[in-house]
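FORM 7B: Structural annotation worksheet

SECTION A. Query
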Amino acid sequence: MRMIDYTPQLHTAQAAARLAGAFLRERFHSVKTVDASEAHDIKLRLDKETQALIVARLQQDFPEYAVLGEEGDCGHDSAPAQWVVDPIDGTVNYFYGIPIFCVSIALQVAGQTVLGCVYDPMQNECFCAIRGGEAALNGRPLRVSARSAMAEAVVFIGHGTHDGSGAQGIARFAHISAQVKKIRILGSAALTLCYIAAGRFDAYIENRIHLWDFAAARVILEAAGGCLEYEPSSADGRTGSVIAWNGALPIHDALKMN
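SECTION B. Predicted structure
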């Protein structure tokens, strides 16, 4: 069976992500227009503008592909492939002037995510991978950490205020935090997963996450030697819970609560 080379598509994703990243970086210190404000989330006018910019760049090279995006979908069900786009992962950070956010672009073919690109414009860090290949950060190979003891781990834990787990989530947060070296919450799922791929973090646990939040970063993490388990909770499979780790930590044992 002939393997398909997705390098051209990855180059297009990188170009679109960097274009969008530059757009967001230029506007980082400007006044932002809020389109919608929820209890634990914000929708900015820039979310839609950035996605439009990304989609235009992607369709310049691959007009036949569909797009699944946080800010809306386009294309046909019969399209040969589908881009999965999160124009600003970390919108609340961006709105509050916290320079931790990214642009996330993945490509799915026949239901499988075949490549991912996550770009942090404030650090100029571009994480990329093609399924079956190596993960890279600005062209340098990435590898997850070898840490196998929870006591040495740096972990992200969703803690119940926004993931729907309530008191159970708070209890889980306390249970895990007592076992690890440090808890870190970036406010960006995609960057957190890429940080595991880079060996900066070791695990990520979240009860409520959307497909566009992690699709690209999952390819990068797995190409770097990490693991991710996703359990859908919605009929369309776009929302669910996730456990991601470096492959060495006993994360399932650590999550057990007596």
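SECTION C. Observations
Residues 33 and 45 are 6 Å apart (CA to CA). Residues 7-26 form the longest helix (20 residues).

SECTION D. Sign-off
Analyst initials: ____
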